[in-house]
């Protein structure tokens, strides 16, 4: 440092040459540079008029700026602006060293900001845009002149990789025209260039604008080809890029048409997990992400991907990848033809029970619960798995902290509870079972709350459980949010709860009386299919009450249900058809009662139906009774046998009975005509009973 301060050209050159050969990364030398003011001297020499001194000082600066401590010091002294100014120098060596320095200092956040504000990014993009013929060959085979042009490109790409880590840096690179330059760099056979370009692609893929821009250059197809690269870094980075862009529908169509699924199922093997774990884990995540589209999941199912995924479970992977593997198996379990296939996998029962009880990652426990909830729809599987107290094991999952696990456990409990004998007693015997359910209903997480409402809907189908939960305030908690909740899962669960409460006759009437039917009708207009199905199912159950039918018809639900019949979903069509059937029966029976009791005219459709039923249903003996030629004018009151109870009709969907007296009021008659009217009334009731039957 003493000789450098002297200002002698020969001494300065000699000292710089000596310092170049020293390992300046040693702590002793770093402290000496800081204490003696050597960093400021080197920074001043970078602007020296002598090229030899200038290049030597820049070469030393390029070495020491790899150290984070030196980066912060030099940036505070204005190294960013000095390096940017040197990019416009005519000397190739000086430009190359300036790019090296920029590549080092952009590792710091302040360095990226300094380079961007000094407008160095357009120069970096310009120097990276080298002749395409150079990029097609290995750097080792280039001539000296071409190699001098290729080396700055490598450091330019490294600097741009650091700049692309921040949002404003990505915007500046995009405006400088980096898209076409990157596509040219991807065609290079030089692995370091390709790796740095892939890093830039992965950073820029966080923005939707850049995804569309890169799609113009067909980058996605090129990335698929890089999945087969012998370099583990290249294949892993290409897989990371595809993972980040698969949520775009247009990009997803391109990569699927380019054979992405076949490549992933070929490359994701045990050897890949051992030697290229980064690529292996990312490949599993890509398979899971693309399978969110139903058509792709069907293609994977047709390609027998279920066996492929299950074989990967035994291979070591990170926890997130393991979760995705179990989630994929759960997706395949949604197809009924796969239930027995999954159950016949070696050790699947033990693995599912272990995951539900003991797995350290809570989301994997939720995936296992979801698989069990789908498999138990098969009678054979349920008969085998029910011996493991699976209901109690799934109930224990309601205590974990993961919302996904709690919701999956609640949904898995529904089919198991449906098949469990003596369910009401079993639920009440679970230790703290009802209190756990109350905690779920008070949760602020929407997924946990939706799962708790679904579980409540299944439990309250028993009258004793309904009384217990009502006394604890469960229904008050749920109905307090029925007008404010907007989350689709919660709306669907609330409709399912109303449908379950509709199985109790008095509560069915009370729901309509309290004005909840218009709320359910509003859910029928939802864009979410699950909400629409649950709302239709709730209306179906509520329409079993005649007064509720009148309310439904008044609110114009018939036209909505007719539109639901056109939707290609069997559950929705069944629920809508059942509701329309109940409403139509009420209208038809009302017309019949008008004709019998009030002697009012019928519409043509009702009259046609009555004639058909009259011809087909009334038997010969009943005809003989009706054809009595004369009815006595005077009948003693003592001889008249009054009916002991009104004629009742049992609906096919439940055991509740409805009386005609609930729906119609028989007009009073004079005492002299009482016997005659009563006899004709009995015959009319028999006729109506035949029609209803």
From TrEMBL:
SUPFAM superfamilies: ARM repeat. It comes from the Eukaryota. This is Putative armadillo repeat-containing protein 4. It comes from Panstrongylus lignarius.
